[in-house]
Amino acid sequence: MERISDLEILPLTMEHNFWTWSAQAHVNPIPVTRADGVYFWDVEGKRYLDLNSMVMCVNIGHGNQRVIEAMVEQARTLPFAGPGMATRPRAELGKLLSEIMPQGLTRFLYTLGGSDANENAIKLARGYTGRHKILARYRSYHGATYGALAATGDPRRVSWEPEVMPGVVHFLDPYRYRSTFHRATPDISEAEFTRDYLNHLEEIIQFEGPQTIAAVLMETVTGTNGVIIPPDGYLQGVRALCDKYGILMICDEVMSGFGRTGRWFAVDHWGVKPDILTMAKGLTSGYAPLGAVAMREEIAASFNDRVYQGGLTYNGHPISLAAAIANIQVMREDNLVEQAAKTGEVMADMLAELVERHPSVGEVRSIGLFGVLELVRDRKTKEPMAPYNGSSAEMTRLRQYLLDHGVFLYTHWHTVLLIPPLIITTEQLQEGFRVLDRALDITDAATASGGSA
Ligand SMILES: Cc1ncc(COP(=O)(O)O)c(C=O)c1O
Fold first, then answer.
1. What is the pTM of this model?
2. Within a 10 A sphere around the Cβ of 354, how many other Cβ atoms?
């Protein structure tokens, strides 16, 4: 086929592509041609500041030559080997991962991405415990395949019910800003707040029958559902409940892992050791598709004499493994985890300033370079700027303004997510926040005060 020109990219794609997560007649894709650092460019040469790390995954930034070279080298040596083969990248990555994982997670099952990492985590938990139920939270996303979708609490699951995997029971998240239990007692202490949500979980465990529950599956820090950061003591409490009832604790760190929160993994902030941890995205920073399930030795050993029924043709693809190895090396050499923690503090200050300046910002939350703004029509009632699972004219205009001014980020219902590459500098963050600051005038005008702070 003749090489097409840049200007043909968009029309030709529109002609033949079926788009995921989209109503086909309503898509408006950016025809992207190249990317470097925290920026990418479209066919017309317009530059975008990438405040979403593309799909919350390009943690080391775009176009890193060390990762690209490692992939090219692997492609030259051994571009493919079956999932049952021992290869150099398989040997090396396991060693590297076991060095950065929470203690005790020493075995790795490689997948193609986050969804199938969670699918396998569920299978492993069921196989290990001999129990079938999975507890997961309402404000969560665990993937789009039928098992991971069943675990997902948000409306992305509801569209495909009732055909999703059976056996999942959902519970509530410790989401302070909109806590169902504390509408009349918003000033409750963090310890009591935490206890209420742990009691809620324990009650559900008892109602469902602990002997039927294989695992509690949760995003350590909830991602697309609003960067919900667990209060101190919550994860430790979940760990204790899991131990008490012989339930496995699975932490989904697909989005929160690999430096995103200013630690290698979000669980490291609270010193909690899950039985299983799933990862993807930042594992390769998106340079190649890869996910992984990290597990305790004991869980792996329970399959010593029986077959683990599961696997896909491309599990442990050598080029993806090589990308992951180089990606981790880049993160280490350039101290990106430490850098994310530092720049995260700068971002937290910038977020706090937006609260001061804009009445439509109801609350901001962040941990490392993982941040969110909750936009509201009224700070007192906390009425969201768009309804749950919906959009609004203001949110659409806000997003369009940002894109028009070269800032790419993710808006979800009434929230704006800030998930930039970990390499972002203070100046680059300022560049994005200047545009965001102006864009928020749009939502301010829709507040009860009509825009005055
Ligand atoms: C927390 C979490 N889990 C799982 C997934 C699914 O990962 P993938 O899209 O690689 O299948 C995602 C993707 O956004 C995610 O954010």
1. 0.97
2. 17
Percent of the chain with pLDDT over 70: 99
Distance 2 CA to ligand 1 centre (A): 36
Atom of ligand 1 nearest to the CA of 114: 7
Model confidence at 452, pLDDT cuts 50, 70, 90, reads low
Q: Give the whole-angstrom CA distance, residue 337 versus residue 66.
A: 18
Ligand 1 pocket, residue 223 CB under 6 Å: yes
Computed over every residue of the chain, the mean pLDDT equals: 97
Which residue shows structure tokens 């050598």? 318
How much distance in Å is there from the Cα of 152 to the middle of ligand 1?
Answer: 10
Q: What is the pLDDT of residue 316?
A: 98
99-115 burial string, b = 16+ CB within 10 Å, else e? ebbbeebebbbbbbbbb
DSSP β-bridge partners for residue 251: 218, 277
pLDDT one-digit tens code per residue, 118-155: 999 999 999 999 999 999 999 999 999 999 999 999 99
3-state helix, strand, coil in the chain (%, to 5): 40, 20, 40
Does the Cβ of 151 fall within 6 Å of ligand 1? no
What's the gap in Å between 4 CA and the centre of ligand 1? Answer: 32
DSSP secondary structure code for residue 281 in this structure: G
Atom of ligand 1 nearest to the CA of 113: 10
For a pocket test of ligand 1, which of 254, 283, 312, 372 has the largest count of ligand atoms closer than 8 A to its C-beta? 254
CA distance linking residue 41 with residue 247, whole number of Å: 47
Do the strands 407-408 and 410-412 form a parallel or antiparallel pair, or are they unpaired?
A: unpaired
With the most atoms of ligand 1 within 8 angstroms of its CB, the residue from 145, 152, 255, 267 to mutate is 255
User: In this structure, are strands 276-279 and 248-252 parallel, antiparallel, or unpaired?
Assistant: parallel
| Cβ(292) – ligand 1 distance below 6 Å | no
Residue 347 CA to residue 342 CA, distance in Å, equals 9
Give 43's contacts (C-beta < 8 A, 6+ positions apart).
Answer: 6, 7, 9, 10, 31, 32, 33
